[in-house]
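User: I'm writing a tutorial on reading structure tokens. Could you give me a worked example: one chain, its sequence, then its tokens, then a sentence or two explaining what the tokens reveal?
Assistant: Sure. Here is the example chain.
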Amino acid sequence: MDPLLVITNSGAGTADEETLAAALAVLREEASVEVAATSNPGELDGVLHRAGSRRIVVAGGDGSLHAVISALHRRQELEAAVLGLLPLGTGNDFARGTGIPLDIEEAARVVLRDRPRPMDLVVDEVGEVVVNSVHVGAGANASRRGQRWKDRLHAVGVGKVNLGKLGYPIGAALTAWKPPIIRVRIEVDGTVVNDLDQPVLMAAVGNGSSVGGGAELTPEADPRDGRVDVMISRSVGPLARLQYAARLGLGTHPERDDVLYLRGRTVSISGGPFWCSADGEIYGPERRRTWRVEPGAYSMLLP
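And here are its predicted structure tokens:
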């Protein structure tokens, strides 16, 4: 078995440390393992600099995976890397969408026994990457509010249940009460599919299927098919918003008449201003962003 470099968050809580210890015990049965805890991009760069040919295992959630893949992409080392994931996040949407077990010991066995598979990456015009999903409008506003609640509740736990998991549902509920309505032009592979005269509740570019701990925003997205799924909700009226939210909870919202669902390789959004939520990272306000798919950009150990 190739040696493993396990990268974890130095700010992880006691419960995460106990869970990680169980996964490390499984890994060490068959492989040489080094654990490196990082808390900022500088430390992460230092760890990756000495990774060599070792397989890199991310112990964390979507944000941690995003940070490692982004750093490898920036260092032009992503194509040669083989990554594994031990899902320790609050949402773990990338794991859910790719079949990586949420049980940490089972996820460790995937790292040991399964083979690397090529994975798509989404990259914007300034070189920022999206591993799982990026969305604008109500969803990004929910993420902005949800992140604040996640930070407040992360230190609160009942047994092994971390209340940080409630952050996104709280943010979503607050946003549903008074959502932002944005006016944007959206182009998919050069074709305008929504113009400024059509208000939008939210739009999503999905490499993976779910966000926020299992909400299937782009339910048919596959991070291995060379395309992204684009979901545009025009459910801007009060009743339409409620109906859309109910359908979103069931993953059937693409069936609505006021929802567009497409696939493509390049997506541009302009107008606004609008905020973006990319793998849980919030940035903006923006006036224009373009995302394109890089097929088979890296390799991931998957079931």
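What the tokens reveal: DSSP finds eight helices and 16 strands in the chain. Residues 138-153 form the longest helix (16 residues).
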